[in-house]
Every structure is written in structure tokens, then in C-alpha cells.
Specification:
alpha+beta; 4-stranded antiparallel sheet; 32 helices
Length: about 850
């Protein structure tokens, strides 16, 4: 090490110390030092540990917020300046929050009457009651340097035997005295042992009243043992809310929340304030129902400042379509982080009363940092909306629109309990293809023992990679050695309205998740509803398919719910988690996928065998009503959709008739007379026809059908990325308008209604410079399913460089059929709304023979 240290000394000796420390004393010095240093030193570690520089506007706002709450809610007139207020930043990093707390204390003391003892008072606070914990040595050192500079600037520097109250420690452990000395990990260095003792004195003895900061939020949480491991257990059960699901509680920031809650609520002085900025997924995520329920029970006031900036929910775009960057975007990290964030303030009073309301506000766009900076000066005047979190949807701490009675309706999976996850290949480019011949050729080569692994890897690299549990060479060797197999080429619903071919093999080593029992239940006569428990962004209405479905039919984990389901004798053969199997009725004509209560309901209003298909299609019709989606938008983002039950068989059949029409339109494998076959309806005949730009005829053999307008391109790891393409928005022509209006009367619509349902304008969508699909109404073009813009998504995969060929005539006409299917669906919306409102008004309730909430 001697030579390395000599190099380091030479480099440091070249630093102009006066100039360096002048720069370091500036307000935002850490931004220029620590964040770029860690990014250069170990960017992967930085991301894993969730280490992000906190903008000063955020720090100032949060400190001002805490100061205000102390004065107004906990009746401490001097706020942070009061000697009784002990403050902790449990993940203090480079000390930004601690510096701002000391600045706020100094400001209050000066406003109270500036005298020559203010600096001494601030130094006493820095030593005795403003504490920071940090587990990483580098920011720990910088924090001490920052605090030392603050006191130096106040003309009250720390003496040789004095130090700031910042300790190198794991903030998540040591709050409870060890029962035995052996329970503590031994520390060889006396200095570190003393550091731990001093930190544990703060943890166990200091009457901490304020805990604030920016805890690390990352799924990487490292190994947790003992006290730290048990922190999130309190959030894993609920009293009224649905049970937590998923792995979200393993995130590191959750442990910091629980540590802070335990200290403020369960330890002396049993009151105080928590103010954290964190990943905001816990505000409404399914993993955090117990966490939210507990906070509503344990705190007197909850304030949420949602800072948005989420890549997945909103695409980092405001509701008005403007950029909405991460609050952590900086000069050195312009992208910021991917998830949205929020500042949450939790207040516990000495005379505690459980809260039933939450104060919530959204901050959007590029100006939200400036908005926080303004609010820091008038934090008490900030406007919040009051919301009342509902237990039935997991107490979300965000606004969630829900129709009256919605939470009394049964969930979709309460009615149809078997919901298979879709097939996951993880090697789409090898196992899935638009052309069956191409797929068969690949698989034939792969299973040819005369070809070596090197030859296969050259042509199909994803089939021979070694990544995680997938060991390509070993899997191929095993498949070549077997004497029999359950494998086949099958139709595969890859994306909405995009059915391809899949090489399906029951050997789970080739496909990531083959879903064997699911595939065995699929046939053309057995329809499936495609839904999901919780969307990534806005809820998307159900799809309907009759082929094997892909896990990515929806933007987050599509579930395939069949009408009929033949089940194995053992529930464990199907599910990793136990589910109710009382819907399996051996000896019936058909094994409908119905829960026992659903069978009771059908028996009361009709019969199971006659009415199960009506029941299935009724759910499809209800979920596609725009009024249903709008009235219950908030609740639909939280959990499975809930379905109001028709009160009579006649109402069930009427609703099912609409659902049956929708099922035919939504399933691209089902021909629909008047829409895709036969005498096309007049209002649909003008929609989506293929045209040549100069008015002539197109020649498929001359490449006229090649998609070259820029709808898609190859991204990293072979993922197809959407492009801008070429489209022209325009008014309807007189002929197009007349055709649409002529069909309106037959549908029971006015001319204005039909145009409003399809869109006020229309588009011409180009394959290339010489060919386009004419008159694709705006709402048809913008129509989404599963989080995908349907037609645009379909086109993105068929750009000529990606597909390797031009489109075939039947593929060109498939876009026409998709456009007409969507248009016919949209033209049903008024009727669907009327049906939903009728069913809702008469929906069976708990007081009506137990037919409602099952």
C-alpha cells in the first residue's frame, strides 16, 4: 500500500486547500463532491444502496414542515429551537438535513432576539440533540466536515474534545438493549466500539421527538439479521384491510419507516413527528396494506406531498402531457430515479386519536422544486385535499375514486377463482414468431443433433446463453437426449390483437414459465378473460382470448381466467399458494370455473349449467362500460375489479348478450359478421381501408406493403421499441361522415353520438410513403388495452428491418379488421353504460339473500 498512498499524497498535495474549502463551504458543495464521486467510484453500489443526493429545496421544505408541525400540532412554540426537541436523521448521508436543522434553529433564535449566545446554543444542539446515523464511512466523514464548517462559519467551532452527534452505525439495530453481551457482534477496534456505545446511548436513552430524512429505497436490502430482520413483521398482518401481497415489504426504506414508527409510537416520549421522502409505491401498493392500516391507527395526522416523476405509472409526464422529471434529477444524474417519490409527514400526539382522513396533494412538472422552495417559507398555508382511505381497497393514501356500493360487490376472482398467469418465455425472439414456418425452422435446427452448440449459438444466441437458472447448453443436451416430449406449435396471444405462433414445451427449462396446467385447459371453445390484480399505470379493461395467453398481454402480469377448467386432484399441482377448490364439481356436464358462492347465486336465480356462460359474459360487459371504469378508477388501480351482480336472471341474460358481442369483437380468432366478414356495416366500411397514396392499385410483389414509416426499431437485448411512425390527422370527408351517420340510426345513436364515440377527427396511418390505412378515427387509433396502444403496438413489431419482409395482403387487412373491431366496440359504449347503471342500481346486496358480497 505504501506506493499507492504516496500517489494519493502527491495528488492531495496539489490541491489548493483554501480554494477547495471555500468551494466546499458553498451551499450546494456536496452536489459537486459526493454524488459525482460515488457515481465514478462505484455506480452499481450507489444504485443498490439507493444513495441519491437530496435536492436542497426538498431538505429545506421538509425541515420547515417539521418545524411548523412542532409548533402547531405538538404545541412547541419554538419548534426545532426548543431544547426539548431531539432530532434524528437515521440515514444522514453527508448531513444535508442536519445542517438545515441547525440553520433553522439559528434562524429561530435570531428572530427571538439576536444575542452573542446564538452560536453557542446551536453548537449545543449539534452535540446534544441533533443526531445523525450513517452506515457508509465516506458520507459519514463528509457529514462531520459539513457540520464542522457550519459551526466554524457561526464562529463557534468544535473544540478538540467536541464532536457533532453523527455516528457510524446501523440505524436499524441497537434500539433494544442486548439481553446478553454475546448477542452483540464483537468489534476489534476500540474507537468503533466506543462509536457503537455512543450511538446505542442515543437509540435507547434519547427522547427522540423528530425523525426525518431520505432513507435508502431500493429492493436491494442486504442480509437482515435479528432485530433488523423482524422490523417489517408488524406490517405483514391486517385487521380490516386485505392481506399484504408481493415482496414490497422487503424494500430497505420500509425498515426505516418501521424503525421510526416504533421509536415515536412505542417508546418514550410516545409522541413526535416522522418526515421521510421515499419511493411512493407504499402509498397504494398491495404489499403495504398493513403498513398503511397501522399508520392510520397509530398517528393523528398524515400529510402526503406526492412528487410524482414515475417512469412506470405516468411515463414521467404530467396530466397535461408536459415533462415530469424525477425530483432527484441533477446536473450529474439528469434521469433521476425511475420510481415516483413522496414526502410523508406522520404526527403522533400525546393524547392520541386515530385518524380517518389523510391530507394529500400532487406536485407536477419541472417547477416542483421551486414550488417546494416557496412552500418552505409558508408551509402552513399549503393546500391539501382531504381523502378518506377505504379499508376494502387497502387504505390507499392517495385519492381513489370508487362508486357507492363498489366495495360490497365481489371481486372477479371471488366469482371465477382460477386465474392462471400467462406463459412466460424469456426468449421471445427464439420461441415466438409471426410466421410459423420461420419458427418451425428454428426449432428444427435447435433439435438437430448434427448441429453443434456453436452453430446454434451463432444463429440463435438466446437459446444457448447461460444466465441465472437458464443454462442453454445443458438444456439443449437434455432435450436432445429425451425419447418423448409434450411439445407443440400453438397459437399464442402475444399482445392485444396480436396472435402469433409459440413453440411450447412442457419442459420448464426451455420456457421460463410454461404454465402446463393452463395450456392443457386452452381450446378454441373455452374463452378466457384477461385481467390483472393491479395495473402498473391506469386500469385497463379486460381482454378476451381463446388461445394461450402471454404474461405480457398486460403491462404487469396478465392473468388468464377461463370459463371452463379441468383441474388436477391436488391443488398443489397448480398453485404455489393455497386457494379454494370447492368450485370443482365432479360429475357435472362442464366444470365451470366458478366459486361455491357463485354457484349458490346462479342456483338462486337460475341454474349453474345454463347460466354460467351468461355469468361469464356479463362480467365482460360490465368491465367494458366507460362509466364503470370512470366511477371506480381509483379502486380498480388497487385490486381485482369488483362486479355488481344482476338481481334477476332476465337482467343477467340481457347483460350477457352485450358481453357476448364484446367477446367476439375482442377475440381476433373469432370472425364477426358485419365487422370482419360478410356484408360489412356501413359505418365500418369506410374505416381502415388500405389505399395507395396516388390513388392506384398496390402491388404486393413490388414491395408496396413493406412497413418502413418508422413504427418500430430494435432496442437493447432485442426488445422492440416503438417509433414515431407516420400518421396524418384530418377531418372526416363528407362521404366518411355520411357513412358513419347512416349506421348510427341502426345502432340507436344520433349522428353526434356516433362521431363522439369514434372521435371528432380521423387519421390516415402510413405503412410507407406510398400506402396507408385510410380513416382510422382518433379514438380507434388511440385505443389501448393492457397498457398498449393497440394498432401502433401491432405496427411496431412489423417494421420491415424487424420482420425481415413486407406485409402479406391478409396481414394488411388484419389492421383493417382490428380498426373495425375497435370501432364496433366503441360504438357499444353508450349501451354498455346503460346496462352497467341498470345492473348497479339493482345489484344484489348483503341484505338480499346473501347474493351480493360473496
Amino acid at each position: 500500500l505504501v506506493e499507492v498512498l504516496d500517489w494519493a499524497a502527491e495528488a492531495l498535495n496539489r490541491v489548493d486547500r483554501a480554494a477547495f474549502f471555500t468551494r466546499f463551504s458553498e451551499e450546494h458543495a456536496v452536489q459537486y463532491f459526493y454524488e459525482p464521486f460515488l457515481e465514478a467510484f462505484d455506480p452499481q453500489l450507489r444504485r443498490q444502496l439507493g444513495v441519491w443526493y437530496t435536492p436542497p429545496e426538498v431538505v429545506q421544505y421538509m425541515v420547515a414542515k417539521v418545524d411548523h408541525v412542532l409548533r402547531t400540532e405538538l404545541e412547541i412554540p419554538d419548534g426545532l429551537a426548543d431544547e426539548r426537541v431531539v432530532v434524528l436523521d437515521p440515514c444522514c448521508g453527508t448531513g444535508a438535513y442536519l445542517v438545515e436543522v441547525l440553520n433553522r434553529i439559528g434562524r429561530t433564535l435570531r428572530e427571538r432576539g439576536d444575542d452573542a449566545l446564538v452560536a453557542s446554543d446551536v453548537k449545543r444542539a449539534a452535540r446534544k440533540r441533533v443526531f445523525g446515523f450513517e452506515i457508509m464511512p465516506a458520507p459519514f466523514v463528509v457529514a462531520h466536515l459539513q457540520l464542522g464548517l457550519v459551526m466554524q462559519q457561526m464562529d463557534a467551532p468544535f473544540g478538540d474534545e467536541e464532536r457533532a452527534g453523527v455516528y457510524l452505525t446501523n440505524a436499524l439495530t441497537g434500539w433494544v438493549p442486548a439481553e446478553e453481551p454475546k448477542d452483540q457482534i464483537p468489534i476489534a477496534l476500540p474507537e468503533l466500539a466506543t462509536e457503537r456505545e455512543q450511538a446505542e446511548h442515543v437509540k435507547q436513552d434519547a427522547p427522540i421527538l423528530v425523525i426525518l430524512g431520505n432513507p435508502p429505497y431500493s429492493g436491494y436490502a442486504g442480509m437482515a439479521i435479528g432485530e433488523e430482520r423482524d422490523l417489517s413483521d408488524a406490517y405483514r398482518t391486517t385487521k380490516k384491510a386485505p392481506k399484504p401481497q408481493g415482496q414490497g415489504l422487503n424494500d430497505l426504506y420500509v425498515r426505516f419507516f418501521r424503525m421510526a414508527e416504533r421509536k415515536i409510537v412505542e417508546m418514550k416520549p410516545h409522541k413526535g413527528v416522522i418526515c421521510f421522502i421515499s419511493n411512493y409505491s407504499w402509498l397504494d401498493g398491495l404489499s403495504f396494506t398493513g403498513m398503511r392500516e397501522r399508520y392510520i391507527e397509530k398517528f393523528d395526522r398524515i400529510d402526503v406531498d406526492s412528487l410524482n416523476g414515475d417512469k412506470y405509472r405516468t411515463g414521467k409526464v404530467t396530466p397535461e402531457g408536459e415533462p415530469d422529471p424525477s425530483i432527484f434529477s441533477t446536473e450529474y444524474n439528469r434521469e433521476g430515479i425511475q420510481v415516483g417519490t413522496a414526502i410523508v409527514t406522520l404526527v403522533r400526539k400525546e393524547e392520541h386519536e386515530e385518524t380517518d382522513t389523510v391530507r394529500y396533494r400532487d406536485l407536477w412538472g419541472k417547477g416542483k422544486l421551486a414550488e417546494l422552495e416557496r412552500d418552505a417559507e409558508g408551509v402552513g398555508a399549503v393546500g391539501y385535499a382531504k381523502i378518506t382511505p377505504a379499508a376494502g381497497i387497502g387504505y390507499p393514501l392517495m385519492p381513489r375514486a370508487t362508486a357507492e356500493g363498489y366495495l360490497e360487490w365481489p371481486k372477479l376472482t371471488d366469482l371465477f377463482p382460477v386465474a392462471f398467469p400467462g406463459v412466460k418465455t424469456s426468449r421471445d425472439e427464439f420461441l415466438v414468431d409471426i410466421d410459423r414456418e420461420q419458427l418451425e425452422h428454428r426449432i428444427s435446427s435447435y433439435l438437430d443433433p448434427e448441429l453443434t452448440n456453436d452453430e446454434i449459438a451463432r444463429d440463435y444466441p438466446s437459446a444457448l446463453v447461460i444466465s441465472g437458472p437458464f443454462h442453454g447448453p445443458r438444456i439443449r443436451r437434455r432435450l436432445l437426449a429425451r425419447t418423448e416430449s409434450e411439445s407443440k406449435f400453438i397459437r399464442f396471444s402475444y399482445r392485444p390483437f396480436d396472435v402469433r405462433w409459440l413453440y411450447w414445451d412442457a419442459d420448464s427449462r426451455l420456457l421460463d414459465r410454461p404454465r402446463i396446467e393452463y395450456v392443457r385447459n386452452v381450446n378454441q371453445t373455452n374463452l378466457q378473460i384477461i385481467s390483472q390484480q393491479r395495473p402498473r399505470r391506469e386500469w385497463s379493461t379486460a381482454q378476451v382470448i381463446s388461445t394461450v395467453g402471454c404474461i405480457d398481454l398486460m403491462d404487469r402480469s396478465a392473468s388468464c381466467i377461463p370459463l371452463v377448467c379441468q383441474l388436477p386432484e391436488k391443488a398443489g399441482d397448480l398453485f404455489s399458494e393455497p386457494r379454494h377448490h370447492d368450485f370443482v364439481q365432479r360429475g357435472e356436464a362442464r366444470n365451470y370455473n366458478l366459486s361455491a358462492p357463485a354457484r349458490v347465486y346462479l342456483t338462486k336465480i337460475g341454474s349453474v349449467q345454463a347460466d354460467a356462460p351468461h355469468f361469464f359474459h356479463d362480467a365482460i360487459g360490465i368491465m367494458h362500460a366507460p362509466a364503470y371504469r370512470e366511477e371506480n378508477a381509483g379502486a380498480l388501480r388497487q385490486d381485482w375489479p369488483r362486479i355488481p351482480l344482476p338481481s334477476t336472471r332476465e337482467q343477467l341474460v340481457r347483460s350477457a348478450d352485450l358481453g357476448r358481442q364484446l367477446a367476439a369483437l375482442l377475440n381476433p380468432e373469432t370472425p364477426v359478421p358485419g365487422v370482419t366478414t360478410g356484408d360489412i356495416r356501413p359505418e365500418l366500411r369506410v374505416i381502415g381501408s388500405i389505399r395507395k397514396a396516388d390513388g392506384g392499385q398496390l402491388n404486393p410483389d413490388a414491395g408496396d406493403l413493406a412497413v418502413t414509416a418508422g413504427w418500430g426499431y430494435a432496442g437493447a437485448r432485442g426488445v422492440t421499441m416503438p417509433g414515431r411512425g407516420k400518421s396524418k390527422e384530418r377531418p372526416y370527408t363528407d362521404d366518411e361522415r355520411a357513412a358513419i351517420e347512416s349506421g348510427a340510426e341502426r345502432l340507436g345513436l344520433s349522428a353526434d353520438d356516433s362521431l363522439a364515440l369514434l372521435g371528432d377527427t380521423t387519421y390516415d396511418i402510413y405503412l410507407n410513403e406510398g400506402a396507408y390505412w385510410s380513416c382510422v378515427p382518433s379514438r380507434v387509433w388511440e385505443y389501448t388495452l393492457g397498457g398498449y396502444q393497440v394498432i401502433k403496438k401491432w405496427l411496431s413489431y412489423r417494421e420491415q428491418p424487424l420482420l425481415g419482409r413486407a406485409l402479406k395482403p391478409d396481414e394488411v387487412r388484419e389492421v383493417t379488421n382490428i380498426a373495425r373491431r375497435i370501432a364496433a366496440t366503441l360504438l357499444m359504449e353508450k349501451e354498455l353504460d346503460g346496462n352497467y347503471k341498470s345492473v348497479k342500481a339493482e345489484a344484489c346486496g348483503r341484505d338480499r339473500e346473501g347474493l351480493g358480497r360473496l
